[in-house]
Design brief:
Layout lengths: L2 H14 L1 E2 L2 E2 L8 H23 L23 H7 L8 E2 L28 E3 L4 E8 L2 E4 L2 E4 L4 E4 L22 H6 L3 E2 L10 E2 L3 H5 L3 H5 L14 H9 L5 E3 L25 E3 L23 H5 L3 H4 L4 H4 L17 H4 L14 H5 L10 H5 L2 E6 L2 E4 L8 H7 L4 H5 L5 H9 L6 H4 L2
Antiparallel strand pairs: 1-2, 3-4, 4-5, 5-6, 5-7, 7-8, 9-10, 11-12, 13-14
Helix pairs in contact: 1-2, 14-16
């Protein structure tokens, strides 16, 4: 029992004339009314004292926040910090002078695409699908024109062609005149300063998602830090969408420079006040979108998400992912289909009804019965022939392939079969309307 509860109990017993089993009421001390009044007066005084002692100090009303870096969070959040520091988020950029093993590309063989040496690399960017290489010139960093395809283990050209990303027309064609500061670094750092071209911290640190932390370090209470769990659905997901989306700032250029990240946004803000998602024209395939609006390239999870039923129903990104780190692919909270089946199952309202075999018409332990295979197909391009998963969660019917050329999960898996075959098979499925999936 805590101190406040003990005080309440003691006052109640005193007002009844007892403390524990011993009588202390009218017959031994004071008249009942005086005893009760005194008891509650004593309680009030005690609780006031207790409250004064237990209420944590509050920051001044005019206190300002500053960025302090993730290391300042470690002492109070040790477990989270330990998990986070090994995530891809915490290691987007790596300094090969500090971590020589960070360089994945093969520099031992001559390749016409590789016009630079290992020694020229100041930062590596990425390590999962592709790795690019940054060099510093003056106060700016620039990406060399070759990137390493991690899966295929080969060099590929890195160059943003005119007519692809919107910003290409605003920069010279020379790759070494396209600085990463306005085009990349706002998402791969904390507190990028537009004028000084400096950061509080490289990589996606704590304050990228929780905002400036100096007040929280000094006054470690809930009101001094942004916690996405206490934001509304839109603002909570905006924390992720700020970087996991294709778009452009509402104010552009800024002092003559075009930026490709939401300048000025901080967690807790409405991202739409700072950022416009890339425009899509229904029925037209573009650099960023398939004709139906599904993401065509990597880092567009937010563009997909906002058009999904998950978003409509108020599901949040962190319901599936824990960016502080998990043992599982993409930092999902459960292995395999566990993350999906926490909410989607035959006994739950979102469904689907029936067994897995009934829903998928595949054996339960087969690839065709994986939730991701049909509802998060690999259709967003990242490098070479490597695609990443869609986040609309819609089943892409073979009809969409027939009409618009969008890859569908049926013939992506059954590569030896035709689209027409897939349509005929889907018409036989007992749990799905042919009008929805096959016409």
């Amino acid at each position: 029992m805590d101190q406040k509860a003990r005080l309440l109990l003691s006052a109640h017993e005193l007002s009844r004339g007892t403390i524990g089993d011993e009588a202390v009421g009218p017959s031994r001390f004071l008249p009942r009314r005086v005893s009760t009044t005194a008891a509650w007066a004593l309680l009030t005084a005690s609780l006031t004292t207790l409250s004064a002692c237990s209420t944590p100090p509050q920051p001044p009303a005019d206190a300002t926040k500053a960025f302090v870096g993730s290391a300042a969070c470690q002492s109070c959040h040790q477990d989270i910090y330990n998990r986070w520091k090994d995530t891809l988020m915490a290691n987007v950029l790596q300094n090969p002078r500090e971590r020589p093993d960070a360089i994945l590309g093969d520099f031992s063989k001559l390749d016409p695409l590789v016009t630079f040496r290992k020694e020229d690399v100041d930062f590596t960017y990425g390590s999962k699908w592709k790795q690019r290489y940054f060099t510093k010139v003056g106060d700016d960093y620039f990406a060399f024109p070759a990137q390493w395809d991690v899966r295929a283990k080969r060099w590929r050209r890195y160059y943003v062609e005119p007519g692809t990303d919107w910003w290409a027309e605003h920069y010279p064609a020379d790759q070494m005149q396209r600085p990463t500061g306005p085009l990349c670094d706002g998402c791969h750092s904390v507190n990028y300063d537009l004028r000084a071209k400096t950061v509080t911290e490289w990589n996606v640190g704590c304050e990228k998602c929780h905002a400036a932390g100096s007040l929280h370090v000094k006054y470690p209470i809930a009101s001094t830090i942004v916690n996405p769990a206490r934001l509304d659905d839109v603002r909570a997901n905006d924390v992720c969408i700020q970087c996991h989306s294709q778009g452009r700032p509402r104010t552009n250029p800024i002092e003559g420079v075009y930026y490709d990240w939401p300048v000025g946004y901080q967690p807790g803000d409405r991202l739409t006040d700072f950022w416009m998602l890339e425009e899509h024209h229904l029925g037209k395939e573009s650099f960023s979108h398939w004709p139906d609006g599904t993401a065509h390239k990597n880092r567009m999870q937010g563009n997909d998400w906002v058009q999904s039923q998950m978003s409509v129903k108020g599901v949040r990104c962190y319901a599936c992912h824990d960016v502080h780190g998990t043992p599982y692919e993409a930092d999902v909270r459960r292995p395999g289909d566990g993350t999906c089946l926490d909410c989607h199952g035959p006994q739950r309202q979102p469904g689907p009804p029936g067994t897995i075999e009934y829903h998928t018409q595949h054996k339960a332990d087969s690839e065709g019965s994986r939730c991701l295979a049909c509802h998060m197909p690999l259709v967003a391009r990242t490098v070479g022939d490597v695609n990443v998963r869609s986040h609309t969660f819609r089943f892409i019917s073979p009809v969409a392939t027939q009409r618009y050329g969008i890859p569908n999960p049926c013939t992506s898996c059954h590569a030896d079969r035709s689209v027409q075959w897939a349509l005929e098979e889907l018409k036989k499925w007992p749990g799905a309307s042919p009008w929805r999936v096959a016409e």
